[in-house]
Amino acid sequence: MFLSAIRTPTVTRSLQAQSTRALSVSAALNEKKQFIVIAHDHTDADAQKRRLSVRETHLAGARALKKDGTLQLGGALLTNHSESGKMVGSIMIFSAESEEDVRKIIEKDQYVQGNVWAKYDIYPFRQAAFP
């Protein structure tokens, strides 16, 4: 009797932990997936001019995607951090149901439509959970 009284709380805590892990895994399966997109600009003489000509439209689209939770973060790839550094591409993290959904978003982007990005790659990604 004495031993079973001691073991019961440990077993209960263990079952609670297993139940919590199962709920976490179940919730994670229902969440959207994360994807990193790395896009590289064309390198011809007019590439920067094209980028700047559609930049505001590109950023307006990015703000809308950020607002609805699809775009988690984004920014320009630079040649360096000095004043002479140039934008040479973009990096973005998306939250979406599938890679195809991300591809559709990218294909509608002004940097694709305006011939700024020469190529882009989409990578599955999972953000680490830090305490």
TrEMBL record:
Pfam families: YCII
Residue ranges constituting the YCII-related domain according to the UniProt record: 38-126
Coiled-coil regions listed: none
Membrane-spanning residues: none
Signal peptide (UniProt feature, chain positions): none
SUPFAM superfamilies the UniProt entry points to: Dimeric alpha+beta barrel
Name of the featured protein: YCII-related domain-containing protein
